Predict the structure.
Amino acid sequence: LFRSGPGHASRDLVLIDSSAVMAHPSGDGQHTVEQELTQTAELGLALFPDSTQMGEWQMGGTQNGKPYQQLVPVGPLPADLGLITRRQQLQQIDETLHPGAGPLALNNTILAAYKQMTASYQPDYANAVIVLTAGVDTAPGDMPTSALLTQLRKLFNPSRKVEVVVLQLGTAGNFTAMQQIAAATGGAAFEITKPSQVASAFIQGFSRRLCDLHCAAP
């Protein structure tokens, strides 16, 4: 599935939901949504080879007037980032995330991330915005989903494809909206209600993305 080297790798900006909703029960009777997210992020990260470029934003609340905070800039997973590698830093962040009290401006954050990944598109990679969220948009001033869909469709370029891949954690969110957002970019959405579903979702989502680069007839 994941072969190393140029043209066989992914380049991903991961959006991590840390809003207050993440403290709610996930629906399985055993975990909070945040605990489910932590397991999902850890399992998902382990599936990516060192040929991957990855970065991470935290959503929920505001940071310098923005509805997100950049935690790790996009770059190669094995590259040094301070005293440790980018992969190790992502692992540490995912293990220590906690739900906050701030609202989630999900649609505004997805659009900002999509614009960044579109502007920095690299043709030898499968480029994507990966959204790990409960899917509950709680910010009063956030753009409606219809407006986000309009913007994504304008930005989408099939010859410079950047996909939105959504993993909705728990059942509180509007999964239909997540499916529409992903579909507007040729991506996919998955509803995760237990950690055992993570590997299947990543395999389905990313095998299709890499096939977009290599499976088409010349």
In short: The longest helix spans residues 198-214. The mean pLDDT is 83. The two ends are 20 Å apart (CA to CA). The first strand starts at residue 9 and ends at 17.
